[in-house]
């Protein structure tokens, strides 16, 4: 008998990770209008910064979450200020920006490899495990789910209740109009790049603590993160929220289906992409428009 | 032509005499030692008698061989070798190449092959199939090698197999274990002196049967290594396999795969993985509470790197046993090899130095038996002489596909002593 409660729980863990990884990607896409491939390295950099705090300085995992958040926020800001904003000002197109982001990613990844080496690193923290009803949980899995949900709540609050949130939505919707209305679009973009990168860093840290840490860690979840962005509707936070958990569920159900069919779990990406292709055919705006947001 | 045929026959006799005398003396000495009744006697008596018989048989056959093959063999006999000296398997290859060097040195110290010295040409493959093919072409086209020891990794062997067949050059890998090598290159110029994982799959399946498990789940890497073992284990276990999972090592989020195994009610898991994914798999298996059933694990997860993750080490000490290829325990020829190796390099041989030594020795014997430096003749001779050769890793007889007919495996367990984890041998397969 399949323990469906466990499957749902596993899906929530997977989905939470995808959400943390995808929020920054979708928001920066909404504002600066290009897919940022260096987002994978924001995840990796946060994870390595967290590793330095938790394992090399032995300060405890709670501090490493802050370290990952801060380090990636700084990297996000630096990327925007030093690479993408100057390029945009010189009239770079989406292709230029995309290639620049791939180049930036290379640079960061190989710098990481120079500092920490390329072989897998491990967080030597043992997470307690326990049963809640029929569900087996560990503390890191619960931390992952809670962090993603708290982040979602805070983001919801920022987007709906603060001036900054309104500015973000306005800038994504129509930058010219926003600027004409007195919104400092560049400042808004900087804040979004910082927040998005910071959340990615935390996501990377969680993935590393749950599995192991390698320089390519971000690339392992960049593909599903892009799937979440498109499924949710590019630029839509709420769309991404639903899409992340949908994809998490689809992936875990997919694993069960693949095992039943005697196929390798390599094909789980095929399931994500079938969903993606169907979305692009039948609902190219994703889930975004459900919330009256800009596509 | 007729003189060369005659030469070949004489050499064949020489080889048979050599080996039969050596083996008979060795085995005789072994049992003489056994009769004396204590282990040390077995070792010393057996080794001495073996070495004596070997040396005597060698010099007798050698003299005859020199007499008969003079016109046919080249003045210098080239043996090529492809080794991973750099790249991913570099640390392993640096050691393994010493097994080849030791064999060549020994052959030359005894006068080479029928009086012709052996010249060893080693090329680095950088653990890269593309570079392997380039290096192989260099050995074949520039140096004119008709026999090559290596390469080490299965994908490297796959990369050069076709070219070897086309140019009729004998390739003997001491380390590549993938069963796909057998199916891609059956009955041809590709040989190996380590058992195919088909045998390890059988070993894993039989260990599960032996221990009375009736609900077995298989959990394997989705690649030729994992699938090869899975299919063979399933053949042995039949309907006792209740669930098969082939996983993607890059996924690393194995919770639902493990939940499926948990829900299936399996009492045993046959597992094939590598270090990086294996550590995460064991960590998550511990977290999912799968340490209460028996895990039987292939050699990919044998080694200290598994203990770098504390949960993985703990899980293995609680739930895992496994297999790895070894020379038969207490083998006189292995002890002799290890002694010579230590004397030459001032260090103990590590995994696969012995199979590399045997591969080189077999190549030399095959050239001697062929009486001619010609790939096709060497290939046919290799199949023949392998029936008589007892090397560092025991009987090295090839089957019709150029694979080992037998391979011994150690059954290992992980124990925790004073907070330290370590691997210990708890048995062998076959028993």
Please tell me about this protein's structure.
The complex is a heterodimer of chains A (295) and B (431). Chain A is built from 11 helices and 2 strands; from the N terminus they run H-H-H-H-E-E-H-H-H-H-H-H-H. Chain A has 295 residues and is mostly helical. Chain A has a domain at 13-218. In chain A, strand 1 (129-132) and strand 2 (135-138) form a beta hairpin. In chain A, helix 2 runs antiparallel to helix 3, helix 3 packs antiparallel against helix 8 (185-210) and helix 5 (139-161) crosses helix 6. With 431 residues, chain B is of the alpha/beta class. Chain B is 52% helix and 18% strand. Chain B is built from 14 helices and 14 strands. At the A-B interface, helix 1 and helix 10 of A face strand 7, helix 9 and helix 10 of B.
Topology:
The complex is a heterodimer of chains A (295) and B (431).
Chain A: H1 4-32, H2 39-56, H3 61-89, H4 94-116, E1 129-132, E2 135-138, H5 139-161, H6 163-173, H7 175-180, H8 185-210, H9 217-232, H10 237-260, H11 268-282
Antiparallel strand pairs in A: 1-2
Chain B: H1 2-36, H2 39-69, E1 77-83, H3 90-109, E2 118-124, H4 129-142, E3 147-149, H5 154-167, E4 170-173, H6 180-184, E5 190-192, H7 197-210, E6 216-221, H8 224-237, E7 241-247, H9 255-264, E8 268-272, H10 275-287, E9 294-297, H11 310-319, E10 320-326, H12 332-345, H13 353-370, H14 375-385, E11 390-391, E12 394-395, E13 408-417, E14 420-429
Parallel strand pairs in B: 1-2, 1-3, 3-4, 4-5, 6-7, 6-8, 8-9, 9-10
Antiparallel strand pairs in B: 10-13, 11-12, 13-14
Helix pairs in contact in B: 1-2, 1-13, 2-12, 3-13, 4-5, 7-8, 10-11, 13-14
């Amino acid at each position: 008998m399949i323990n469906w409660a466990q499957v749902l729980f596993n899906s929530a863990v997977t989905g939470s990770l995808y959400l943390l990884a995808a929020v920054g990607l979708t928001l920066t896409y909404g504002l600066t209008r290009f897919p940022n491939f260096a987002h994978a390295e924001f995840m990796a950099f946060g994870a390595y910064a967290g590793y330095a705090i938790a394992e090399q300085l032995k300060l405890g995992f709670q501090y490493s979450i802050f370290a990952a958040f801060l380090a990636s926020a700084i990297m996000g800001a630096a990327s925007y200020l030093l690479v993408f904003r100057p390029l945009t000002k010189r009239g770079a197109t989406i292709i230029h920006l995309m290639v620049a982001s791939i180049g930036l990613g290379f640079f960061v990844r190989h710098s990481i490899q120079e500092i920490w080496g390329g072989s897998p690193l491990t967080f030597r923290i043992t997470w307690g495990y326990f049963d809640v009803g029929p569900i087996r949980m560990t503390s890191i899995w619960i931390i992952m789910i809670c962090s993603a949900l708290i982040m979602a709540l805070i983001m919801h609050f920022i987007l709906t209740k603060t001036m900054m949130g309104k500015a973000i939505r306005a800038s994504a919707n129509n930058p010219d109009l926003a600027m004409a209305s007195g919104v400092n679009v560049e400042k808004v973009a900087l804040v979004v790049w910082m927040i998005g990168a910071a959340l990615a860093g935390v996501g990377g840290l969680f993935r590393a603590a749950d599995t192991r840490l390698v320089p390519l860690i971000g690339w392992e979840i960049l593909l599903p993160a892009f799937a979440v962005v498109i499924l949710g509707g590019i630029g839509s936070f709420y769309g991404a929220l639903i899409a992340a958990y949908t994809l998490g569920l689809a992936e875990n159900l997919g694993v069960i289906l693949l095992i039943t069919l005697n196929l390798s779990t390599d094909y789980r990406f095929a399931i994500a992409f079938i969903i993606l292709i169907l979305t692009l055919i039948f609902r190219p705006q994703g889930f975004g428009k459900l919330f009256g947001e800009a596509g | 032509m007729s003189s060369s045929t005659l030469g070949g026959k004489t050499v064949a006799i020489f080889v048979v005499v050599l080996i039969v005398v050596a083996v008979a003396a060795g085995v005789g000495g072994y049992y003489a030692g056994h009769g004396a009744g204590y282990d040390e006697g077995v070792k010393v008596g057996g080794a001495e008698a073996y070495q004596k018989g070997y040396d005597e048989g060698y010099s007798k056959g050698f003299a005859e061989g020199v007499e008969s093959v003079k016109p046919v063999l080249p003045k210098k006999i080239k043996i090529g070798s492809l080794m991973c000296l750099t790249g991913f398997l570099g640390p392993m290859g640096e050691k393994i190449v010493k097994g080849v060097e030791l064999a060549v040195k020994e052959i030359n110290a005894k006068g080479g092959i029928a009086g012709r010295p052996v010249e060893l040409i080693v090329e680095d493959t950088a653990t890269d199939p593309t570079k392997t093919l380039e290096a192989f072409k260099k050995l074949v086209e520039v140096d004119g090698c008709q026999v090559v020891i290596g390469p080490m990794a299965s994908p490297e062997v796959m990369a050069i197999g076709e070219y070897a067949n086309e140019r009729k050059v004998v390739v003997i890998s001491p380390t590549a274990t993938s069963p796909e090598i057998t199916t891609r290159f059956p009955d041809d110029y590709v040989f190996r002196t380590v058992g195919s994982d088909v045998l390890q799959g059988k070993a894993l399946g039989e260990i599960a049967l032996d221990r009375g498990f009736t609900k077995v789940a298989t959990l394997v890497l989705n690649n030729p290594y994992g699938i090869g073992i899975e299919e063979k284990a399933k053949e042995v276990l039949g309907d006792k396999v209740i669930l098969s999972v082939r996983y993607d090592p890059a996924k690393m989020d194995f919770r639902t795969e493990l939940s499926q195994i948990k829900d299936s009610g399996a009492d045993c898991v046959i597992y094939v993985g590598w270090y990086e994914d294996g550590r995460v798999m064991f960590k998550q298996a511990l977290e999912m509470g799968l340490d209460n059933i028996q895990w039987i694990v292939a050699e990919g997860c044998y080694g200290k790197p598994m203990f770098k993750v504390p949960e993985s080490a703990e899980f293995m000490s609680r739930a895992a046993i496994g297999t790895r290829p070894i020379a038969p325990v207490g083998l006189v020829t292995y002890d002799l090899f290890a002694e010579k190796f230590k004397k030459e390099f001032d260090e103990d041989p590590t995994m696969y130095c012995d199979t590399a030594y045997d591969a080189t020795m077999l190549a030399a014997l095959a050239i001697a038996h062929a009486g001619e430096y010609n790939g096709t003749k060497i290939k046919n001779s290799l199949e023949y002489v392998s029936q008589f050769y007892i090397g560092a890793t025991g009987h090295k007889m090839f089957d019709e596909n150029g694979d080992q007919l037998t391979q011994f495996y150690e059954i290992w367990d992980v124990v925790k002593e004073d907070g330290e984890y370590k691997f210990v041998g708890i048995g062998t397969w076959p028993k």
